[in-house]
Amino acid sequence: MRSDASVQGTVPHTAAVRSSGARLFFKRLFKQKSLICMSVPFVIWIFVFKYVPLWGWMIAFQHYRPNMGMFDQEWVGWSQFRFLFEDDSFLRVIRNTFAMAVIKLVLGFVTAITLAVLLNELRIAMFKRTVQTISYLPHFISWVVAANIISTSLSIDGGIVNQVLMWLHLIDKPIMWLGVGHYFWGILGISEVWKDVGWNTIVYLAAMTMIDPSQYEAAEIDGAGRFQRILRVTLPGLRPVIVILLIMNLGSILETGFEPQYLMGNGMNADFSENLEIFVLKYGISMGNFSLATAAGIFKTVISFILLFSANHIAKRVGDERLF
Amino acid sequence: MSGYQVSAGVLNCKCLQKRLTNYLERGTKHLDQKKLGTLALIVATAASLAACSGGNGNNGSGSSASSSESAGSGSPSASASASETASSSPAADKTPVTFTYFNANSQVPDIDSNKTEIGKALEDQTGVNFKMQFPVGDVNTKIGTMIASGDYPDVLAPDTAIDKILDAKAFIPLEDLIDQYGPNIKRVYEPYYNLMKQADGHIYFLPFSPVVGDYIPNPTIDQGAFFIQRRVLKEFNYPKIKTLDEYFDLIKKYNDAHKDDKLTGFTSLTYDWRTMGIFNPPMHLAGYPNDGDVIVDMQTHAADVYSNDDVTKRWLKKLNEVNNEGLYDQSSFVNNYDQYLAKISSGKVLGFFDYGWQADQAIQNIKKSGNDDLDYMPLPIVFDQNTKDQYLDPPSFVDNRGVGITTSAKDPVRIIQFFDNMLKEENQVMIQWGFKGETYEVNDKGRYYRTPEEIEMLKDNAKQQSIGFTYFNYSWPMYGGGSTLSDGNSFNAGRQPEVAQASFTEGDKLILSKYGVQTFSELFAKPDDRPWYPAWSISIEQGSPAEIFQQKSKDVKLKYFPKLVLAKPDQFDAIWNEYLDAFNKLDVKGFEDTLTKSIADKIAKVTGGSSGN
Predict the structure, then answer these.
(1) Which of 3.50.50.60, 3.40.50.300, 3.40.190.10, 3.90.1530.10 is the CATH number of B224-391+546-606?
(2) Residue-range definition of the domain harbouring residue A5
(3) Pairing of strands B111-112, B128-133
(4) Is A290's Cβ below 8 Å from some Cβ in B?
(5) What's the rounded Cα separation, in Å, for the pair B365 and B349?
(6) Residues B299-336 pLDDT 10s
């Protein structure tokens, strides 16, 4: 495009610019050769693992059978997508996916930032480190184990949650927490927070160390109390990090995870626990219908793409940090 | 007609094999035993090839004739030239090799087969070791990912996912391999070839249920039954109970008398694919055996989905009532398989419906604790006094479960030779009975039996694993359950009357005597003849409307059944109607038609009538 436009302009001048531009480019390329060398593996990695698989999207338009070649398959057009959108449960699945995503996003951000701010205010290093370590720990438990811990604590025969609530006389008979659909989102949200809150604080704690201590001193001299300092110095200092993370998380909002829903889900809470991943597993992989699974994957990618770009656009409009 | 021809062929094969083996034995006395065995095997294979390929007049019969000739002369070159045809010289046979085997039928720890005693013995015979792997979690997902990657273990028993594997053409056809290397496989499986052949005429896997010899029924209950704890029966002086109402009345009476023990009246398993505990009872209560999602009419052979019928309503209504009395274990709907087993093992559950094989681990745990009061009694409970129960399986050939060799297998020949070696009668004895003097004895009449010490020792799951029974007595090419050995002993140790009697505990004997029977299965009615049985083994095409119906109906049932059971009694009917609406939106009629047609096809195949159509 650019070269086209310049060709229409004054010819001799453009030629000169172009040759010097190219020369400049190669000069710079040579200068930064070590940087280029370092980044090449990653570009290749992205190409191989993120772009090459895209050609597999063809499967979504076929009635794919694994034992036949890619081009011997039967082409079925949009019928896989039609199956998705015409299925009664698909709408419910989408609703669950979005609800769980929003809960996870909001709860995740609020709790992580709060905990990070609180940790930052701690004076006793020993105590701070202990709290940090304890809050990181659940992150390293796999979901299989975590789900068992959760379902055991919520069990109606002797689960700790019911025991405590009974003891406090808040309820008079045990509640089957995982048996009531409406509770599922809440249980999932709390479980996710328990598991990941400590881990998520790391990036905020790191960002806080970047805030210039003189700002705090100045605020203190101006008479700002502790809460005022948090409100006026710490949080504004974190703002760029928060916005960038928010945009990035919006891009993967539909990845609500698979393990917790699968492991804690059952017939009684299926209306609320089934998300896109489980739907794909049931009707795609379990039935050997890889085409349907791929179609659902494409749908997810398109939605994520739209969300990511709109978030970035909004960030640009309000004049904040942005991804690109 | 065709059935007659096949059996005649078998006879021919056997005669020829015998004569040739005799001849060989006379002519090759100077060879050592092992070589002799191999030679005999090769020649027998070749002979059976020649006999069974009949009038085809292909070069197979020609080459086999020449090989038997040279083998008969007993010269050193004999084995070499024979190995050219059968490609199984003694040296090549035993090079140690390890294959992988993924067995989706059971969930036990992964193991190298040669770490078990039986596996070691088989390795000594063949040089083959198997790295055996078992699923964790959902089988369909595991198999689905295997298919997606195209990367299979050498040997695979895909259990419920077998249709997917066949659909993906992941198994290699076995007929030629069997013809060439598997005289024993042929001996055991040939009568069932008709049922084993897929639509394209190939045999892709070896099922686990080819009955050899006379059929011996199981003296204990490994199929469906309503289990009740023995202390309940004892307390009321062993009453005869037949109907569902009587069953729950008894449980209620017992529970009322022992309020302080915090007992659970009745529990069910509803986890993952193991949903039979709540889905299947209506069928059994109405007097039908386990045909899966449908009841098959004895006269018209029409399949009827019973989940939207009155029988299901009646069953759930009863559970609702039981739940309202505080007897139903509400956590049934959230417990996983482990939690369910733990619950039963605890001895606090008065009753449950399940299949013997599924609850067995828990029941064995209770047996080990030695408190007979906590042990269970299986009963054939039905809805009405005049219903005849049909819990026991009719003799049947399950043709959609089995083990096959995958396209990833590096050396199918070695594997099929291993299979064939396994099917030798002495190895079948080892796999089921173990080692003489260690796990079984033979009396002077040639009958096998086990001493009380051996029986006690084998109750230990760890021992079962270290000997290898856990890993070998199912999921391999094998004689079907209930087979008889050529010397008249039972193939299954558990079905040998001597063992069954000796393995009953004092408590077992007492309760059996109270009911005036010798074995547990005597309490159950004899199974009627059902040539299509079991309808659940009918394969359903991948991704077809019928399969989608199965998945969706399961989802609907899993959603509504808990609601129906846990609802307040006055809301039951409203929820039932809601459930019917949701269920009948699915293509019930289409599914029934598909199954009715498949049942007709299977009946035709089994009875051999119109298989040509």
Answers:
(1) 3.40.190.10
(2) 1-31
(3) antiparallel
(4) yes
(5) 14
(6) 999 999 999 999 999 999 999 999 999 999 988 988 88
Q: Are strands B349-355 and B264-267 parallel, antiparallel or unpaired?
A: parallel
| B122 and B418 Cβ atoms separated by less than 8 Å | yes
Task: Give this complex's ipTM.
Answer: 0.71
Tokens standing for B117?
């005693």
Q: Which residue from B275, B257, B256 is spatially nearest to B326, judged by alpha carbons? A: B256
This prediction has a pTM of 0.70
Which tens digits make up the pLDDT trace of B46-83? Answer: 444 443 333 333 333 333 333 333 333 333 333 333 33
Q: How far apart are CA B354 and CA B147, in angstroms?
A: 32
A323 located within any domain: no
Q: Which amino acid is at B206?
A: L
CA distance B467 to A104: 50
Euclidean distance between CA atoms B187 and B262, whole angstroms: 56
Nearest to A289 among B150, B169, B543 (CB): B543
Pair B242, B285: CB distance under 8 Å = no
Task: Give the total number of structural domains in chain A.
Answer: 3
Residues of chain A with Cβ-Cβ distance to B140 below 8 Å are 285-287
Strand partners, B133: B102
Q: Which of 168-197 (A) contact B at CB < 8 A?
A: 176, 178-179
- Are B508 and B139 within 8 A, CB to CB? no
Fold classified for B94-216+397-502: D-Maltodextrin-Binding Protein; domain 2 (3.40.190)
Q: Does A143 touch chain B (CB under 8 A)?
A: no
Assigned token pair, B162: 């077998």
Q: Does residue A94 sit in the same domain as residue A221?
A: yes
Which segments of B380-424 does DSSP mark as H helices, in order? 412-422
CB B495 within 8 A of CB B217: yes
For residues B322 and B268, give the distance between their C-alpha atoms in angstroms, rounded to a whole number: 13
Nearest to B92 by CA among B409, B413, B410: B413
| Helices within B236-355 (DSSP H only) | 244-257, 276-279, 281-285, 310-324, 337-345
In this structure, which amino acid lies at residue B185? I
Q: Which residues on neighbouring strands pair with residue B264, listed in sequence order?
A: B349
Q: Looking at the structure, tell me whether residues A263 and A116 fall in a common domain.
A: yes
**B 557-586: CB under 8 A from A:** 557-559, 561-563, 566
> Rounded CA gap, A253 and A307, in Å?
8
Beta bridge partners of A29: none
Domain ranges of chain B: 2-92, 94-216+397-502, 224-391+546-606
B274 touches chain A (CB under 8 A): no
Look at A288 and B141 and tell me if their CB atoms are within 8 Å.
Answer: no
**A115 near B CB under 8 A:** no
Chosen from A67, A76, A178, A287 to mutate, greatest number of chain B CBs within 10 A = A287
Distance from CA of B408 to the nearest CA of A (A): 12
> What's the rounded Cα separation, in Å, for the pair A253 and A115?
22
Are both A69 and A180 inside the same structural domain?
no
Nearest CA in chain A to B149: A66
8 Å CB contact between B89 and B79 = yes
Residues of chain B scoring pLDDT < 50: 1-92, 609-613
Residue A294 has a CB neighbour count (10 Å cut-off) of 21
For residue A248 the two structure tokens come to 């990035």
Residue A114 has pLDDT above 90, yes or no: yes
Instruction: Assign residue A106 the CATH number of its domain.
Output: 1.10.3720.10
Contact of B410 with B152, CB cutoff 8 Å: no
Residues 244-283 of A with CB under 8 A from B: 266-268, 270-271, 281-283
The chain A residue lying nearest B556, using CA atoms, is A267
